[in-house]
Automatic annotation (TrEMBL):
This is Amidohydrolase family protein. InterPro entries: Amidohydro_3 (IPR013108), Metal-dep_hydrolase_composite (IPR011059), Metal_Hydrolase (IPR032466), Metallo-dep_Hydrolase (IPR051781). Keywords: Signal. Residues 1-23 form the signal peptide. Gene3D superfamilies: Metal-dependent hydrolases (3.20.20.140), Urease, subunit C, domain 1 (2.30.40.10). Residues 331-421 form the Amidohydrolase domain. The keyword Ribonucleoprotein does not apply. It comes from Sphingomonas humi. The lineage of its organism: Bacteria, Pseudomonadati, Pseudomonadota, Alphaproteobacteria, Sphingomonadales. The keyword Signal applies. Residues 203-235 are annotated as: Disordered.
Length: 463
């Protein structure tokens, strides 16, 4: 065989080995099926996934000919958990700075793209996948600017292509942390935020709506709207005032935000800060806002509901770590939902680099809280939706992920018990219809050391 033929064969083998498994038609039958849309579980349901998408789910669903049938009798079947707020893939080992890519103290802020630093092979990804997390909203963390950069939706699949939607949102800090970054006061942080949005609106054409850019509908928020506008002959610099604070790259990255083409995700906890976020819509009406945290959200729940701004809340905060959380209560999520707020569960500032899967435990606790006199929790269906379809809908992706409704991505988990019970575990995880490995570094260590023969340990351990 000639050398070129040999190299071609080797390349084909390597490509096949590195490619993810292909999706097929799968029918999961006989389980207790929860759609993740807030509805009650369906006993003896069937879920059919074809070509990576949900075809049907419920009772009386026919099993297609030739489908791989998985008997889930006695099991629970749900959509995969969507981590409402995380930094999965950006941090491997806290103690090793070189393994931490969640924040930057460099020259750029808003222009940073978290997907360029993602490590899909990181240990936290595998751990969360094994715990039933199939998608994660991933945000960078702030460095020396209140703008952290552009976050994304990723999947936790065991392959090298984790990004579902890049540059999905811009993340900005407000409150105590932002006050410190901005110079020591909340007033400075809010002024920085508004100034940055005005700079972006200025270069977009004054009103924040550049016709050619909006019509172009680019998914690339870093594209320069000035260059894209054939009717605009003025240079980029001619559009800017002399007192600008942002770099050119950062200012351009915020243009899609003021045009409403990219979400602005704001971390705020105190009621007063939440009101300031809601007030942004008066000056920047095109903004599409999402609030993260909102520990005092219940105190302004009616205003939040009226604003229509989705909230991805911390579920069980009740012991304030900062002064801006003095009104924190475990009833926060339940009270906001009761007032009509579109609320989901996230884990900001709660080991979100590694343990985003704890949102499932929190959701279960909120179900239990509903049985406590004087407290306000969630129903079972509401709690599951808060960790599946809720985060997806908050980010504008409810039609693609987060539930077992037809047409959604085939992200499915089979559990050995009630998924909102802390003692239950995932037995099978599918992402885009592909079954995923559940092996982690922790399971390898468990299997290695739990049944050692006498004398199997190195000599140093036998002394």
């Amino acid at each position: 065989m000639k050398l070129p033929s040999v190299l071609s064969s080797v390349a084909a083998v390597l490509a096949a080995a590195s490619a993810p498994a292909s999706a097929q038609t799968i029918a999961v039958t006989g389980g207790t099926v929860a759609l993740g849309d807030g509805s009650a579980p369906i006993v003896g349901g069937t879920v059919v996934i074809r070509d990576g998408r949900v075809v049907a789910a419920g009772q009386g669903v026919a099993v297609p000919a030739g489908a791989q049938v998985i008997d889930a009798t006695g099991k629970w079947v749900t959509p995969g958990i969507v981590a409402g707020f995380s930094r999965l893939g950006l941090v491997d080992v806290d103690g090793v700075r070189a393994a931490n890519d969640e924040s930057s103290s460099g020259a750029f802020s808003a222009a940073l793209d978290a997907t360029t630093a993602l490590n899909p092979a990181g240990a936290p990804i595998a751990v969360n996948r094994a715990e039933g997390v199939t998608r994660a909203i991933v945000a960078p963390s702030t460095g020396k600017n209140i703008f952290a950069g552009q976050g994304a939706l990723i999947d936790t699949g065991a392959d090298s292509e984790p990004v579902t939607r890049a540059r999905l949102f811009q993340f900005v800090e407000l409150g105590e942390n932002a006050a410190e970054i901005a110079g020591g006061s909340r007033a400075a942080a809010h002024a920085l935020l508004r100034n940055a949005l005005r700079e972006a609106r200025q270069i977009a054409g004054g009103s924040g709506a550049s016709p050619s850019t909006a019509a172009r509908g680019s998914d690339d928020p870093s594209a320069d709207p000035v260059v894209a506008n054939p009717n605009e002959s003025r240079s980029y610099d001619a559009r800017r005032n002399n007192d600008v604070l942002l770099t050119r790259y950062d200012a351009v990255a915020l243009v899609p935000v003021v045009q409403g083409r990219q979400l602005l995700v704001v971390h705020a906890e105190r009621a007063a800060d939440l009101r300031q976020v809601m007030a942004l819509k008066r000056d920047f009406p095109r903004l599409k806002l999402v609030i993260v945290g909102a520990d005092e959200g219940w105190t302004v729940a009616r205003d939040l509901a009226a604003s229509g701004i989705p909230v991805i809340a911390s579920a069980l905060s009740d012991l304030p770590a900062q002064f801006e959380q003095l009104a924190a209560t475990q009833s926060n999520v339940g009270r906001m939902r009761a007032a009509g707020v579109k609320v989901a569960i996230g884990t900001i500032n709660d080991d979100e680099q590694r343990m985003a899967f704890r949102a499932r435990w929190y959701a279960g606790n909120l179900v239990g809280l509903s049985k406590v006199p004087g407290a306000t929790g969630l129903s079972w269906g509401e709690a599951l939706a808060a960790i599946t379809s809720g985060p997806a809908e908050a980010m504008g992706l409810g039609g693609d992920v987060g539930s077992l409704r037809p047409g959604r991505r085939g992200d499915l988990v089979i559990w050995n018990g009630d998924p909102l019970d802390n003692l239950s575990a995932a037995e099978a995880v599918f992402i885009d219809g592909v079954r995923q490995p559940l092996e982690t570094r922790q399971t390898k260590l468990r299997d290695r050391y739990r049944s050692l023969e006498r004398g199997a340990l190195p000599e140093a351990y036998r002394r």
